[in-house]
Amino acid sequence: MKSLEIRKKFLDFFNKNGHTIVASSSLIPAQDPTLLFINAGMNQFKDLFLGNEKRNYVRATTIQKCIRAGGKHNDLDQVGFTKRHLTFFEMMGNFSFGDYFKEDAIRFAWDFLTKEMELPQDKLYPTVFREDDEAFNIWNKVIGVPASKIGRLDEKDNFWQMGDTGPCGPCTEIYYDRGPQEGCGSKDCKPGCSCDRFLEIWNLVFMQYDRQSSGELVPLKQTGVDTGMGLERLCVIKQGKDSVFEIDLFQDIIMQIEQLTGLKYSEQNAAKKAAFHVLSDHVRSSCFALADGCTPANEGRGYVLRKIIRRAALFEQKLTNSSIFPKLAGALIESMQDIYPELATSKEYITSVLSHEIDKFATNLVRGQAILEKYFSEN
Ligand code: GLY
Fold first, then answer.
1. Which pLDDT value is given to residue 365?
2. For residue 300, how far is its CA from the centre of ligand 1 (angstroms)?
């Protein structure tokens, strides 16, 4: 199933169930100094969860552009080396602001996965927060998942918050079992293991608290639901692929790298494949961040963007001696501009900033290398 069809089915399903379809917000948080980049679908609804704002809907659904590099949720160093981590991804979510809570949230997720996406029930493994018996019982008694398949995980996995402060709560996650051949081989391998066997696809957060800077959890005026499912991860399953880098959303960029380097992705060793992954992920995060108005800088989110571009430049050297990274922007923009027209509007700007950053970094590298060599020869 193509990503386009998954997008449509997701929004249609929740719209049919009373959710207003809301557009993705910009990646640059509006008036929220606690965040570098938008890192989840719920960010644009923070004030609704806190009860500081009301809108003419209490249920919403979105497909949100997210960047997880820098800040509380930071996957930058893992990107390239796992089959599932990305700095830029699209998060599909449904939200309730003082409306439905645990049972409906779980029921919606189960129905979408098993009926709309037709995923086999026996491959799905839910986990709940350690002491959340209510969620456990909904999975077990209402949905009918055997108790032996429901895991209990602690704060690290099953208590979610967008940053150090703000709305948060216990969550229940749904994992997809990709089979023992994908696993680490440990007898303890289960949902929550860091290997690639159990792929976390959906996180349902039961918003209950407002975390203060002191760490205190203040109950929210109303409970809510905030869910997040990675579009790219669902594509891995629905397209029968081995990793996010093989799904349709990455195809054009990978092909462009192949053309520019003369190297065939499928024939490369792990180190070279990692370079393909880094370049194809980082061109997505860089282009989307630039299109939303972020510029490379020496601090804040601009520094994170500069780090992403420089990381791409370093990995590029594993594949070629020429500077191909800025050229990849064209393939990315071409393949996603129908969904995100802001990419096409900023095309020239994006390409020129990427070229300038890479050139500047290359000059620094050459200068740095000369200093290092001089030091080595003298010492
Ligand atoms: N807000 C839920 C998640 O990002 O997983």
1. 82
2. 22
From the CA of 19, how far away is ligand 1's center (Å)?
A: 18
Q: If residue 223 lies in a helix (H) or strand (E), which one and from where to where?
A: strand 217-230
- From the number of C-beta atoms within 10 Å of its C-beta (0-12, 13-18, 19+), residue 303 rates as middle
H-state helical runs in the chain: 3-16, 46-50, 102-111, 133-137, 155-158, 231-238, 248-261, 270-291, 300-316, 325-336, 342-345, 347-378
pLDDT for the residue 70: 80
The confidence score (pLDDT) of residue 279 equals: 97
> Can you tell me the distance from the alpha carbon of 112 to that of 174, in angstroms, rounded to the nearest whole number?
12
Ligand 1 near 66 CB (within 6 A): no
Atom of ligand 1 nearest to the CA of 91: 4
Q: Does 328 sit in the ligand 1 pocket, CB within 6 Å? A: no
Rounded distance, CA 349 to CA 353, Å? Answer: 6
Give the span between the Cα atoms of 173 and 175, in whole angstroms.
Answer: 7
Report the distance separating Cα 26 and Cα 29, nearest Å.
7
Low-confidence ranges of the chain (pLDDT < 50): none
